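Aim 2, interim progress: modelling of the zinc ion-bound target.
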Amino acid sequence: MSTYRIGVDLGGTNIAAGLVDENYCILKKKSIKTNLPRTAEAICEDIAALCRTLCDEANIAFDNIAHIGIGSPGIICRGVVNSAANLGFHNTPLADMVAKLTGKPVSLKNDGNAAALGELVAGCGKGKSSLIAVTIGTGVGGGVILNNTIIEGFNGAAGEVGHIIIEAGGRPCGCGARGCFETYCSASALIRDTKEAMIAHPESALHTLAPTLDDVNGKTAFDGMRLGDETATAVVDHFINMLAVGVSSLIQLLQPEIICIGGGVAAEGDYLLLPLREKVVAQTLAGADGMRTTIVCATLGNDAGIIGAAV
Ligand SMILES: [Zn+2]
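Predicted structure of the complex, ligand included:
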């Protein structure tokens, strides 16, 4: 009986894979270094070997694997990574390459989309049919699921929530545009804003929390706010205001049942969610019977990508 699946989360730093059962539980997980720069062939060989090792270590015959799913960065269409700058992939038929090496059917999705699907089936969106994930990290990643289906667009480039433009002519973004959501609401943006505020305000308590600018992380401004520091509070307010603009735009367009916020900053819990919900409610429309999108923190962390890929 082929009841198991393997989900692979391919990243620029690590390749993580998990053996997933029919209840979307990860039975065994393993991760190796991506070791870039390398050829796509070498990376695919590692993925295939990792899948076999997982089965060996879980004492499950490789024959019992029904299929393999891969989540990869980049623009993905019909099993091909059209472009993924950090991996050096260009029109790389990743699904076929891993299928040939493993003899298994292989599906390939964008990593943000896979993580959103993982949260929908096994995390904060369990039992729902629509969800948008907003993952706050180096950039802002995410994915859109409507009617249990990943929205990829006609060209595979949909769901890049980090690149919706929330300020005309705003901060320059790595994608070439200006004013993208991620230039205000990534962890990198929050850290940069915290550092700039510290330089402008030598009296701020932020200097006690982070003795040098290198000590600043995504938590520093929130910690300063909890101490009642004005400068820190202004940084957090601006961050949450901009986050609310992006989240509100997503809600107005698609009205999903759930929007989940993931990434390190989600650990702030209610310090993030309560003001975010208040601002979003003030600038979005409710639907029938006053129903509104629920904004929550993601619950699966890095496992979301593995489970979503397996699904
Ligand atoms: Zn952008």
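The pocket of zinc ion is lined by residues 163, 173, 175, 177, 180 (CB under 6 Å). The chain has two domains: 4-104, 127-298.
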